[in-house]
Every structure is written in C-alpha cells, then in structure tokens.
Amino acid sequence: MKKTLLIFLLSLLYSCDSKLENLIPDNHEKWPLFTHDKLDYFIPGHENNYRISYINEIGAKYKPQKKDNDQFLYNYPEGTIILKEIYPSNTYQPGDIPEYYTVMIKKPGHPHAQGDWVWLVKNHESKEETIFHSDMCVNCHEGANTQHPYGDKNLGKDFRDYTFFTFDGQ
C-alpha cells in the first residue's frame, strides 16, 4: 500500500509545478465539513487513506439550481475551496495529523485551471503547494458529473461541478 501511494505521488510530481502560490488559507479546520460520509475506502488517486473534506464559506453558501427534469446543476462560485485532509492509513483518531491535503479551488481565470478548478496538493509539514498540470485530476473528477461508482453514485445524473459528493450543509 505504501509503495503504491509513493509511486502515485512521485508520478504526480512529474506533472506538477512546485511553485509556492499560497492559494490555501491555514484556517480550513474552521470550515464546514463538505461531507459527513466516512471516507476510508479505495478511490483511484486517493487510495484507501482516510480523508476528511472541508468546504470554505463561499462554497458552503452556494445552493444548486434545480432543472426541469429533477436534476440539479451545481456550479460552485469562484473562490470556492474544497480541501481533503489525507491521513497515513485508512483509520482516523482525533489528534491524528494528515500527511497532505488535496485541494480544488474554483478559479476559472487561473492559468492552470482545468474545468474552472485549480487542482493541487499541499504538504502538511512544509506547507508547500504543488499545482497539477496533468489532466489526471480533472479527467477523473469529470466522472462526478454523471452516474459513477463512488459515494452515492450520482443516480440523478446531476452536474456536480467535478465533485463526487455534494455539500450536505450540516
């Protein structure tokens, strides 16, 4: 498992820009949880590491639009940040420290935005932010906009703006 994660992270580094841009504020622990689902199972790109997801206030205030056919259209506003704390194993105890964060920032005008999102990783210890130039993240997350095999499976075929879960507002 550790070897798989290491290979994955090394492959990402070859498709990333290691410039520190400071796009992520340090206070994410005060943001609402993006989902209350227990995220401890395998998902490609995130392995089966335990994950806790947060959304900033800009995204948390957004309400999806309902379309005529009972589908929902999610189009988070610019400035929305969705951050996942990634832990070393698939278990979590209060006080555990994440290894790194995977982050989506809705920033359509950014030169590295894909699907209007900037995709990056932030190292917990060094605070270094690494932007993905590869289309791996956006290509995978594009599946969230239709029925998919993860989470609630998006049975309504909603456009979810590249997020596999929807903000549950709690």
Walk me through the structure.
The protein is 13% helix and 21% strand. A hairpin with a 5-residue loop joins strand 3 and strand 4 (72-73). It is globular, with a radius of gyration of 15 Å. It contains 3 helices and 8 strands. The protein has one domain (2-145): Chalcone isomerase (3-Layer(bba) Sandwich), CATH 3.50.70. It has 170 residues and is α+β, with helices and mostly antiparallel strands. The longest helix has 12 residues, at 2-13. A 6-stranded antiparallel β-sheet has the order 1-8-7-6-5-2. A two-stranded antiparallel sheet has the order 3-4. The model is unreliable at 1-15 (pLDDT under 50).
Mean pLDDT: 85
| Number of β-strand runs | 8
- Which geometry do the CA atoms define? globular
Query: Which sheet architecture does the biggest sheet show?
Result: 6 strands, antiparallel
Residue windows where pLDDT falls under 50 for at least 5 positions: 1-15
Please give the alpha-carbon distance between the first and last residues.
Answer: 33 Å
The CATH architecture can be named as 3-Layer(bba) Sandwich
Total domains? 1
Please write the CATH class name: Alpha Beta
Q: Walk across the major sheet and give the strand order.
A: 1-8-7-6-5-2
Residues in helices, as a percent range? 10-25%
Count of helical segments? 3
Structural class, judged by helices and strands? alpha+beta
Rg of Cα set: 15 Å
Using the coordinates shown, work out and report the CATH topology.
Chalcone isomerase
N-to-C series of helices and strands: HEEHEEEEEEH
Strand content: 15-25%
